[in-house]
Design a protein that fits this description.
Keywords: Chromosome, DNA damage, DNA recombination, DNA repair, Metal-binding, Nucleus, Telomere, Transferase, Ubl conjugation pathway, Zinc, Zinc-finger. The chain has 237 residues and is an alpha+beta fold. It has nine helices and ten strands. The protein has a three-stranded antiparallel β-sheet with strand order 1-3-2. It has a three-stranded antiparallel β-sheet with strand order 4-6-5. A two-stranded antiparallel sheet has the order 7-8. Strand 2 and strand 3 form a beta hairpin. The longest helix is centred in the middle third of the chain and has 16 residues. It is globular. The termini are far apart.
Length: 237
């Protein structure tokens, strides 16, 4: 109730504007931005109050069906923040920025990534889809250019010719992915966020992000599944 009653100051507005223009902001940057906005606006600042500061903004965003959400990078486990539009949870909310054919390529790329065993799709496999699109055939050179844009816009990440979903995409589209890929999409057993790149228990099928695996098994001589207690057969990172 206190949060709901809290006033949205210029500091809150400035913080929100930067987050929206960034698309996604890494945790340490968000903390610096929090301090900068409070000091510029001469309002109370406490280094451990970022979550309260964001809760106040979220209470004012609620009627607009928007929310600042926190997510974890599957790469290194670092926190990130993104503004999510709750009214449009499907891939179609990207429609204002991309053409129909570009969106079809994105959906097909997402299929490959989510249905893969390791959460990655090779550029070769994605480019092979380019001339099978229903909307219109796409030349491989054109498809390469579109993939580059998706990486620049932080919907995809690329490493050595392998593509995965960017942290921004996972934060914004978690609900869409969980409801549209019910048979394969899983949440991490440790942090309970959607896990695209994960290790899976061979006995009971639970999944864990690699940074969560690292943290959970740190210092354990024999890694065992947190759910069924069977030996964790994957190579722990």
């Amino acid at each position: 109730n206190t949060v709901m009653a809290a006033q949205m100051t210029n500091a809150h507005r400035r913080f929100l504007q930067v987050l929206m223009s960034n698309g996604i902001t890494e945790g340490s940057e968000a903390r610096k931005l929090h301090q900068h906005c409070c000091e510029t606006d001469k309002v109370y600042y406490a280094h451990d109050k970022l979550d309260d500061f964001i809760s106040t903004i979220n209470s004012h965003l609620q009627p607009l069906f928007m929310q600042i959400r926190k997510g974890i990078s599957e790469d290194d486990g670092r926190a990130h923040y993104a503004v999510v539009n709750l009214a449009e949870t499907e891939v179609t909310k990207m429609a204002s920025d991309y053409t129909e054919i570009e969106l079809e390529l994105f959906r097909k790329t997402m299929d490959l990534i989510i249905l893969s065993e390791n959460g990655f799709a090779s550029s070769t496999d994605i480019l092979n889809l380019a001339d099978q699109l229903k909307t219109k055939k796409m030349k491989k050179k054109e498809a390469e250019q579109v993939l580059k844009v998706f990486v620049e816009d932080k919907w995809l990440s690329e490493k050595n010719g392998e593509y995965t979903l960017h942290t921004r995409c996972i934060i914004e589209m978690e609900q869409y992915i969980l409801s549209n890929y019910q048979d394969v999409a899983r949440k991490c057993n440790i942090c309970h966020s959607l896990a695209i790149q994960s290790q899976v228990c061979e006995s009971c099928g639970i999944g864990m992000h690699l940074p969560c695996v690292r943290k959970y098994f740190r210092g354990q001589t024999e890694p065992r599944c947190p759910k069924c207690n069977e030996f964790w057969s994957c190579d722990t990172p």
